[in-house]
Amino acid sequence: MSARPTNPTNPTRASAPDATLRDAPPTSALAERPEHSPQSPLAIHAMTVAYDRKPVLWDVDYDAPPNRLIAIVGPNGAGKSTLIKACLGLVPRASGQVEFWGEPYRTARARIGYVPQRESVDWDFPVSALDVVCMGRYRKIGWCRPVSRAHKHVALDCLERVGIRDFAKRQISQLSGGQQQRVFLARALAQEADLYFMDEPFAGVDAATERAIVGVLRDLRDAGKSVIVVHHDLQTVPEYFDDVILLNMRVVASGPVAQVFTTDNLHKTYGGRLTLLSEAAEAIARAEAGGA
Amino acid sequence: MSAFSLSLDLFPLLAAVFAAVSCAVLGNFLVLRRLSLMGDAISHSVLPGLVIAFIITGSRNPLPMFVGAALAGIGTVVLVELIKRLGRVEPGAAMGVVFSVLFALGVLLIEQVTRGVDLDADCVLHGQLESLWWPGAPDTIAGLFTAEALHDIPRQVTTLAITCTAACAFVAIFFKELRIASFDPALATTQGFHAGVMHYALMVLVAGATVASFEAVGSILVIAMLICPAATARLLTDRLSVQVLCSVLIAIVTAVTGYFGASVAPAFFGASSVSAAGMIAVTAGALVATAALFSPRHGLIARVLRRRKLARAVALDDLLANLYRAAESDTGATPAVSTATLPARSRTVIPRAARDGLISVSDGAISLTPKGELAATEIVRRHRLWESYLVERAGLATDHVHEPAERLEHVPIAPPPGPRQDPHGRSIPQEPDSLQ
User: Fold this and answer.
1) What is the reported pTM?
2) Does the beta carbon of B82 lie under 8 angstroms from any beta carbon of chain A?
3) Do A114 and B88 touch (CB under 8 A)?
4) A114 touches B190 (CB < 8 A)
5) What is the tens place of the pLDDT at every residue in A15-49?
6) Are the beta carbons of A85 and B32 separated by less than 8 Å?
7) Residues in Cβ contact with B358 at an 8 Å cutoff, skipping those fewer than 6 apart
8) Which residues of chain B from 84 to 113 reach within 8 Å of chain A, CB to CB?
9) What is the torsional sign of CA A62, A68, A73, A79?
10) How far is Cα B423 from Cα B55, in angstroms, rounded to an integer?
11) Alpha-carbon dihedral of residues B167, B170, B172, B177, nearest 10 degrees?
12) Which of A103, A190, B362, B382 sits CB 3.0–4.6 Å from A136 for a disulfide?
């Protein structure tokens, strides 16, 4: 994975990282900073995110190493999904910058795949499994052009890779939860991205699907890609992942599982010490909304 | 009385069909995104837009009216989004608040500001389909295709034709984008098909179709047409493209039958006339009800039939299992069981089981044939394997597993094989090797 040459830095942008940015700046600002590397598929600098004025992520700094399976773990309400969505521009950032291979999201979009939570869509929607997987190709197909046979073939291959090619014509409500999750995974494969974000792909799936997903994740890593996964099951973190981000409204620790995934760090992430921070967030939300 | 008169029926019918199709084709995406009420909201809140346009321009000139109504329609969409976000209420509540308040505002404005002017709230609700009749209609079909005839086309019909074309073109051109933005807005946005932009583009067209339609056909028909054809089509198919095409066909059929129904129906009720728009809306509702009853997959009747078929299969399984257990407890080789001792549910499937060669009946007593015995063994095997599974793996108490196993033995998922005895100490029949 070679990073493209970075654009000349806009000094006013770089010197004002705390400016309110709805989108990443058009020029690379982070690659100039010694602590962030342009090789990194994902560099987050001083990112703060708030919902309805209530801060959910405080000052996140993170560099994803290339070619790794990375788990994001943390308690409920720690901001795991929000971290992903803020990187992808799906929720606005209050401050901070995010870059992919030294580029803003807008230009790196085609190299980034996303698997939302399974519950985030309506599974009664009148589309087949194949239709859903084809959606992963829409970016490559472009505006207003129909899905060609070649793209459908790629989509079918992706269904094959997750082991449910036989269900291609099924309407998605007739699939089991595990099969639905595999459809989402196949759709991500169809995006042919270099960096993937997956929001709880293991939630509520059967053992066979879990094995299939892990197999696909390893294939992706072996093909030189990076995958960042919101994960709930602490027990399987060392087995499935290379790196881990321990998150609880801020990054408690991040790095290789062997070094970072320690009892001490887990206690810091899941322990009660951060209740003060979330109480403060509530107070900020109340005060700024004009409440008492 | 002739069924169709060019002079009386052509333009009203065209207006109804164009209005129905433009609403139906867009309505698909409202129904799928659970925004059905949005059509309702827009069609009600265009009223203040119309009145304000009238106050500003002082005339009933159609262009400012149209612009005023369209702006009100878009304003509704923006207001709904704002209230949803600021008031933190669910979309339905936000839409309900916006349209009722705006409609009330429109009624107030009409009564206070435009007193004595011909601007009538009733027209907004029921439309004036019948007023589109054509005094100078030619006598023959051939006479339609002349320059004068084209000149005579009422403005409402032209507007509706343009709206209908625009709505169909929008859905055809952006079909792929609408599909992804409706199904998975987050993925659409990350791929560069901004879901918010698609949402507003759709809403602008819904507002346009609503405004263009309701002058001719009234807001009641607009609401019905935005929802009913799409809802009917949704019941008939599981593919979005087929659903959209179906909804257009249904809209055309509804408009035509409803329109002619309005001239036929009064004869049955002894009434003199019936609103064509009302009749079309009623037809649309009747079609939804019909589809809900008779749709092959989602219909009520199909579901009842499927459930009954399943119940019969379960009863047959139970009958065979009962016979097997009777044979097990008896010492005789193939004992016969008196039909009178069987539960009523099992007795009803005896003729079918006999026809399939699973049992033989003689003198009110039944026994398993060799073929029936194989089938019965399989059911009992599954039952006892499930019982073992429930006790050993799921941790249920031994005296609690019979009922769950009774249900599990009929599902098409095989219990894990292995145990040779069930939790009650009975032997589990093993799968015969010859059958594998």
Assistant:
1) 0.83
2) no
3) no
4) yes
5) 344 444 444 444 456 656 666 677 789 999 999 99
6) no
7) B316, B320, B368, B369, B371, B372, B375
8) 88
9) positive
10) 84
11) -140
12) A190
